[in-house]
Amino acid sequence: MGSSLAMQAARQAVKLRVEDATKHYHTRTGVVHALEGVSFDVREGELVCVLGPSGCGKSTLLWAMSGLHQLTRGRILLDGEAITRPHPAIAMIFQDANLLPWRNLLRNINLPFEIKGIPPAARRDRVNALLKRVGLAGFETKYPRELSGGMQQRASIVRSLAVDPEVLLMDEPFGALDAFTRDEMNLLIQEIWMESGKTVVFITHNIAEAIFLADRIVVLSPRPGRLARIFEIDLPRPRTLELTTQPHFIETLVAIKASIDHGGARAASD
Ligand SMILES: Nc1ncnc2c1ncn2[C@@H]1O[C@H](COP(=O)(O)OP(=O)(O)OP(=O)(O)O)[C@@H](O)[C@H]1O
Ligand SMILES: [Mg+2]
């Protein structure tokens, strides 16, 4: 099973390439080395989780992958072309749902179309189907304050998918949600990903979440973030919540945790 999955993955084209990603922030109090020489590939249709402790440069890396921030050294390639500014094929979902409080749900979802000058009517069917898909049909005229945190984050997922991106970048999108809602959202992400075949990069500092979602987990060391290890997760799909209490899942979790603790100790003695 594992080897056939690995062979299948090897045949897939590289969608995103992170090449020597390095970021030094120049601040009033000195230079912060946030990210140092990180390189890895994300294949077409793959779900890659980037895992690392707080402050290790995960957001810095993702913002660079989205084209919103420049790297100090290195580059990000999409289908072989360097990303230097936000790209229409790449959508990003942030930790905070980032809905505008004075717009209702539908008008929040339509915002990217307005910015791009696309009449929302042109995408109405797609938006309606997505709203139904995430269980938000009927909530179109509600305002963000009338929605739960999970519903707001589902709306932000619809907003990102409505523009039909090829790549979805997610920066700890469920970090602020309770454990039950988080499980539900991870199931939803897996379903949408399996249905759509999109390439997804998902950032988290939660090891179990990364194992549940990922084809591969890219582990970063504590700051400055360096590539510590890449784990291949060959658990069968669709993954269920029951799987997270099975011995194989727990063994994987223990192995990744041990590698992180080991990497952390090594980085601290550098
Ligand atoms: N605009 C900035 N100016 C200066 N330093 C910054 C800036 N953005 C991030 N940093 C620093 O770079 C390092 C990496 O930050 P980053 O936000 O990428 O980490 P992270 O892994 O996403 O952390 P978290 O898990 O807490 O979100 C941190 O030390 C942070 O203080
Ligand atoms: Mg972050």
Structure in words:
- By secondary structure, this protein is an alpha/beta fold.
- The chain has a domain at 2-89 and 203-268: P-loop containing nucleotide triphosphate hydrolases (Rossmann fold), CATH 3.40.50.
- It contains 9 helices and 10 strands.
- The protein has helices at 2-11, 58-66, 105-109, 111-116, 124-133, 149-162, 179-196, 207-213, 247-268, and strands spanning 14-27, 30-43, 47-51, 73-78, 81-82, 90-93, 167-171, 199-204, 216-220, 227-232.
- Helix 5 runs antiparallel to helix 6 (149-162) and helix 8 (207-213) packs across helix 9 (247-268).
- The chain starts with a helix and ends with a helix.
- Residues 265-270 have low confidence and may be disordered.
- Magnesium ion is lined by residues 58-59, 171.
How many strands, what sense, and barrel or not for the largest sheet?
6 strands, mixed
The portion of residues forming beta strands comes to 15-25%
Shape: globular
The percent range for helix content is 25-40%
Strand ordering within the main sheet: 6-7-8-3-9-10
* N-C termini distance: 39 Å
Which small compounds were modeled alongside the protein? adenosine-5'-triphosphate, magnesium ion
